[in-house]
Amino acid sequence: MARPPARPAGEKSTREQILDVALELFTANGYEKTSLREIAERMNFSKAALYYHFASKDDILLALHLRLHEIGQAGLERIEMDRVRPADWVRMIDEFVDLLLENRQLFMFHLRNHAALENLQNHEHDGANQDIEERARRLLSDPGIPQARRLRLSFALGAVMIGLVMSGDLFASTPTEELRVELRSVVRDILEPGGVSPDADRESSQLLPR
Amino acid sequence: MARPPARPAGEKSTREQILDVALELFTANGYEKTSLREIAERMNFSKAALYYHFASKDDILLALHLRLHEIGQAGLERIEMDRVRPADWVRMIDEFVDLLLENRQLFMFHLRNHAALENLQNHEHDGANQDIEERARRLLSDPGIPQARRLRLSFALGAVMIGLVMSGDLFASTPTEELRVELRSVVRDILEPGGVSPDADRESSQLLPR
DNA sequence: GTCTATATTTCGATAGAC
DNA sequence: GTCTATCGAAATATAGAC
After folding, report:
1. Which of B22, B26, B56, B67 is nearest to B40 (CA)?
2. What is the least distance, in Å, from the CA of B29 to any CA of chain A?
3. Low-confidence ranges of chain A (pLDDT < 50)
4. Domains of chain B, residue spans
5. pLDDT confidence tier of residue B210, bands split at 50, 70 and 90
6. Closest partner CB to B163 (pick from A158, A186, A196)
7. Closest residue to D5 measured CA to C1′
8. Which CATH number is A12-54's, of 1.25.40.10, 1.10.10.60, 3.40.50.10490, 1.20.140.10?
9. Which of A140, A149, A163 faces B170 most closely, judged by CB atoms?
10. CA within 20 to 30 Å of A138's CA: A131, A153, B39, B101, which one?
11. pLDDT in tens, B89-142
12. Within 7 Å: CB of A4 and strand D?
C-alpha cells in the first residue's frame, strides 16, 4: 500500500486545493476564460508552481473530470441502470435527483464546461457504455422505446437539471429538501401524467392553489 | 431615411454574412474558442477586413445580442407578459415554445454563450425590466406567488429549453411539430398536474402506453 | 472593402536556481 | 515545492497601401 502523505487530519493536499480553486473558477468563468495565472494568484504562489502539481492545464481539467466520473460510477451502481425497465424510470430519476443535489458544484461545472470536457483526449470512446452520460444517451436513443416516452424522459431530465441550476441562482434560499420534494413531484407529473401509478408515494406537498 | 445599400434582392450584406458565420461558430465552439482568423477564413478574406465591418470581436457579439434582443422584444409583445396572470401561464409558455422553435440557432447560441453575453458592457442595467430574460427572472422571484408554483414554472421552462437542445442533438430527426406537441403537453402536466383545467385544449397525442 | 505587415498582449509551458 | 525569467504561439487590434 502506498502511504498517503502525512498531513494534519482535515487538511487538503496542495493538489486538492488547486483542484478546488480550479473547480470554482472553471464553473464561474469557464475553462477557456480561466487562466493559470488566475488560479495561481488564488493559491498565493506563482504560475510555474502549478506545473509541479499538474503537467498542463488540460491535466487539471482531466483531474476534475475524474472527480465527476467517480461520482458518476457510484451513481450508476446506486441507480442500477443496467436492469432499469420503464416502470423503474421514476425511481431512477429520483436517484439522479439525489445524486445531483449532493454534487451541485461538480455538476454545474460539467454543464458549463461540457464542450471542453469532450475535447479531452483520454476519452476511451471504445463504446464502453461505461459513462453515466453515455448510458443515458443510449436510453434516450433506444428505438425499442416509443419516441414520445423517450422525449418525456429527456424533458424530465431537463427539468431536473435546470431546476438544479436555478437552485444555485434564483432559488438559492430555498432549502434543499423543498427542492428535492418538488423535483420528485414534477418528475412524476411528467412521466406519469394523470397519476398512472396511484399507489406510488407521491411526495408533492402544496400543489396548485385552484 | 437612410437608404439601405442597393443590393440584389435576397443577397445579404457582408456584415450580415459575417454575423451568420459568427453565429454558427460561436454556437458550435463558443465565443472564447472562436478566433477572428477562423471567421475570416470562412469568409474568404483576411482577418483585418473584419475590422472594416466591426470595431472589435465584442462588437460582433453585441450585434448578435441585438438580433436576439429584437426577437425577444417581439416575443414580449406576443406573450403580453405584462398582463400575464397565473391562469395564463400555460398559454404564455406555449408562445415561448413557438418562439424558441422558430429561432433555435439564436437561442442555442444564447444558451452556450450566456456568460460572454453577460460580460458585454453596453447592458443598460437600469432595472429596465425590458429584457425577456429579466422579465422571467422577476416573475420567478415574485414573492407574491407561492414558491411551489414558481418552482414549477421554472421546471417547465427548464424542460422546454433542454427539450430544444436535445432536439438539435438526440432528437434531430424528430419533426418540429411532434416536438411542439409534446412540449406543450409536458408544460400542461407540469403546471396543471392532474388536469386542473379539463376544458383546456390538451394537444398531447400518445401518452403513456400502460 | 480588402490587403499585407506589424504592434501589443496574453497565455500555456519550460529552464534552471534555490 | 516554489521561485524568476523567458520562450513561442496565438490572439486581438492597428497602420497604411491599394
Report:
1. B22
2. 8
3. 198-210
4. 12-54, 65-191
5. very low
6. A158
7. A48
8. 1.10.10.60
9. A140
10. B101
11. 999 999 999 999 999 999 999 999 999 999 998 777 776 777 888 899 999 999
12. no
